Amino acid sequence: MHVVINQMRWRYVASVFVIGAACGLLAVYGPWQWPLSADTAAERTRTIPTVLATKTTTIYAENFNGIGSGLPPGWTVRTDATAASLGTPVSFSTTPIDWGNVSGAFKNFASANNAGFNASTPDTTQNSAQDRALGIRQTGSFGDPGAAFTYQRNTTGETITAVSFNAQMLSVQPRSTTWTLQYGVGANPTSFVTLATYTDPGTWGNTNISVTLSPTQSAEVSNQPSVFFRIVALSASSGSGNRDSFGIDNFTLTSSPPPTGPIVPSCPGTVAAFQGTTAVACGLSATSTSSIINNATVFSVTPPTTGFSIVGFVPATGPGGTATATLQIANTVPTGTYSVVVRWSNNDTPTPQTADCTITVNVVATATVTPINQIQGTTNTSPLVSTVQTTEGVVYGLRSNGFFIQTPDGSALDDGNPNTSEGLFVFTGSTPPVQIGNLVRVRGTVNEFVPAADPQQPSVTQLSGSLTIARLACSVPLPAPTVITPAIASTPSPLEPTLPLRYERFEGMRVAVQHLAVVSPTGGFINETNATSTTNGRFFGVVAQVCGSGFCADRPFREPGIRFPDTVPNGGVTGTLPPPVNVPRWDANPELLRVDSTAQPNTTALNVPSGTLIRVHLIRPL
């Protein structure tokens, strides 16, 4: 009830604090603690698979088989090339010519890759061969040093990671030339990066030169308007006598995508189900940094049985995205413990990459469901205290050591009795293994929690002990909050004044206050040494009502007397006399509400001064 002596009616017009559906806890005031003990938690498993081999893509390939009609687009042959110059383009004779021709020129040679060819292949056979090579015969006055085979390319939009070509000794002579594979960037580069060198092996035949570019080199030659690749003789030949006939064939630029990132799955470690009722394991997911997860299946069940399936699969929207799924446990699965392997796969071709995660599913015997209202009863304590009960509800609030459930709207479990609560706290003792919106079936021991620090506190009904928590659905609508109106706030309950529990019938339920008048500001802690303060997010208020164009509320005061339901102590100095009579009793201001704005995880403290009006639905568990 309100204080009569020194009663003050506040008007809340100027100071208004508007919020939406904030997350926290709304509690009936008293110096009482919320449950703090221990029970169950869930863990998650992650598996990292082996990375599959990467794929390569050919960006450009030239076999020179058409040089009888001219050089391929982008190709030039040059002399006078140096370490700082491309050199001078010179003419190229398209007429096929034999390897033994000693005139100095760039030439159309038969490739050493022709089947059955060797150093003794006749000239006429060479000249009629279909497989050609772009070649040169150096002389003292032609290309020694400074001969270069040069290819210019616009690599815009391309990522080049490797360069390869065939170096061919076609006529082996006493003098030897070293050929260098390089690249230069720009329309007329004056500096070049060496990728590989080829030294005369002294024998006829073909040598494949293949270079994988470093990340820096790949970045330099990729996505550029002009890049030159060249095979060049930068230094003079060594030895005496004639020079070799040298050719190049099968010049190739390739792109290798970065290695496909592994599929990283995440699944709940252990879940429960009641035999005879379909259950689900929620929150299965997998991701990969460089591929798209596009499938999930039940790969195996041990011991073997049917009834496990993947439902609600949503593929990742792109590389780096997350795919999600739900494991459904059919009502036909027998009781027992099962190891269920879920296999994820991606869009890699031709062979998708896979990764597994394992869920342990405990299917327990069926149980009769007791509605929450029967567990709560119509009084402060449950009529089913100390018994093991199974009930159902929607998870609508979380705490660090448990969660709140409430009978779904429209459920047959709701008795329609306004004097019985449809909400209940489930004490897990650690991070709860559920999410808001889960429909759960819970089995545990009904307990009336009273903190040891305040044994006179009216108890809080909860489920605790050895818990079995089964999800029946991953996401269902939250029950609509019960609005605590000024009429409800001002009407004493049948339990008063002995038990100052005006809101006992809403214990554990989702409630809302449309207009809350703050009568005690947000508390906290002061560190005088460091001159700092820390909020605890907790403040007190009463339900305000409309007064003309504003709002007003009666501010409660601490009346004289011993608080209900505390016991009146014995009399006398030594406490041996009977309790005194006619001791004033204080009703503990049952209309006062305490708001713990940070009681739920990932919430922000509401720091409000006394006199603030919080409006637009302050929604909390009660």
Concise synopsis of the structure shown:
4% of the residues lie in helices and 42% in strands. By secondary structure, it is mostly beta strands.
- The CATH topology of the largest domain comes to Jelly Rolls
Nearest-integer average pLDDT: 87
- How many domains? 4
Q: How far apart lie the N and C ends?
A: 20 Å
Write the layout of secondary structure elements.
Elements: E1 8-12, E2 16-18, E3 25-28, E4 44-46, E5 57-62, E6 75-79, E7 88-89, E8 105-110, H1 123-128, E9 132-137, E10 148-153, E11 162-171, E12 178-185, E13 193-199, E14 205-212, H2 215-221, E15 227-232, E16 245-255, E17 264-268, E18 270-274, E19 279-287, E20 293-302, E21 308-314, E22 322-329, E23 336-346, E24 354-364, H3 372-376, E25 388-399, E26 402-406, E27 423-427, E28 439-449, E29 460-473, E30 482-483, H4 486-490, E31 510-520, E32 524-527, E33 532-535, E34 538-543, E35 545-547, E36 550-555, E37 562-563, E38 585-586, E39 593-596, E40 613-621
Parallel strand pairs: 2-40, 18-24, 27-29, 30-31, 37-38
Antiparallel strand pairs: 1-36, 3-39, 4-17, 5-16, 6-7, 6-10, 8-9, 9-16, 10-15, 11-14, 11-16, 12-13, 12-15, 17-19, 19-22, 20-23, 21-22, 23-24, 25-26, 25-28, 26-27, 28-29, 31-34, 31-40, 32-33, 34-39, 35-36
